[in-house]
Amino acid sequence: MKPQVLILQATGTNRDAETARAVELAGGQPLVMHVNQLRGDPARLHDFQMLVLPGGFSYGDALGAGRLLAADLRWLFHEPLARFVEAGRPVLGICNGFQALVKSGWLPGPPDGEPQVTLTHNASNRFECRWVWLQPNPASPCVFTRGLREPIHCPVAHGEGCFVARDAATLAWLQSRHLVAFTYVAADGGPAAYPANPNGSLADIAGICNEQGTVFGLMPHPEDHVVAWQHPRWTRGEGGNLGLALFEQGVRYAAEKDVG
Predict the structure, then answer these.
(1) How is domain 4-259 classified at the architecture level of CATH?
(2) How many other C-beta atoms lie within 10 A of the C-beta of residue 256?
(3) What pairing do the DSSP bridges indicate for beta strands 162-165 and 117-120?
């Protein structure tokens, strides 16, 4: 049986179809559901082996990017989501979904106390839409990046993607526990400067996970490079470094966890 993957959308979400296609190519069975449907029966979350919060502009980014969806996660769905995470089922947040996971406290987690990190306005003070390189951290416990050694090449499209930690101690903790699963790098693999780091994120951080490695979020869009022809220069023979590998790892883990 293919793992059942819930792709939770809200009004303004616009990457749900691409995400569903990526999940399908990775071997999962996606179902796109509006948040209002889950609100009517939150226990339905447990019918799924994996949860994805896709990109876009949930609720039109009213009150801030991802903030209202974060309120849903924190208050409306806290109990079922807590059980979902405690069961070790994987959760992925992309762009706006990452913002929602961060602002609800699920990343880096657990969702209690004061926020440890946030995502704020790009250092350029404008919307950034460009392709970037992401280097996986082989030491990270993240189930979505386990086994990945090659960088991923995919686009970003956001105005509030600058990752900031509360203080130096928080950053040191994230790094020491290897919770930084992806960093921005230059095309040659070297340190990133703008525009390779498109938003000015602290320590070039592009994505983080929780300590268990099962909740993961990133600002770039791996679902927008899951087949060769999505590369902007594929007709000139360039390609590779697909984002599909990230979805394959997540779906594979969800399948293993369900069997276990």
Answers:
(1) 3-Layer(aba) Sandwich (3.40)
(2) 13
(3) antiparallel
b/e code 64-95 from CB counts within 10 Å (16+ = b): bbbbbbbebbbeebbebbeebbeeebbbbbbb
CA dist 145 and 208 (Å) reads: 11
| For the chain, domain boundaries | 4-259
215 strand-pairing partners: 91
pLDDT level of residue 259 (50, 70, 90 thresholds): low
For residue 43, give the 3-state DSSP assignment: helix
Residue ranges of alpha helices (H) inside 129-210 are: 168-176
The pLDDT tens digits of the residues spanning 133-184 come to 999 999 999 999 999 999 999 999 999 999 999 999 999 999 999 999 999 9
Q: Average pLDDT of the chain?
A: 95
Place of tokens 């909740």: 215
CA gap 218, 99 in Å, rounded? 9
Strand blocks (E) in the chain: 4-9, 29-34, 50-53, 91-94, 117-120, 128-136, 152-158, 162-165, 180-185, 205-209, 215-218
d(CA 6, CA 23): 10
Give the catalytic positions in this structure: 95, 221, 223
CA 4, 14, 108, 199 torsion-angle sign: positive
pLDDT tens per residue, range 90-147: 999 999 999 999 999 999 998 887 889 999 999 999 999 999 999 999 999 999 999 9
At 144, phi and psi to the nearest 5?
A: -80, -20
Q: SS3 helix, strand, coil % of the chain, rounded to 5?
A: 35, 25, 40
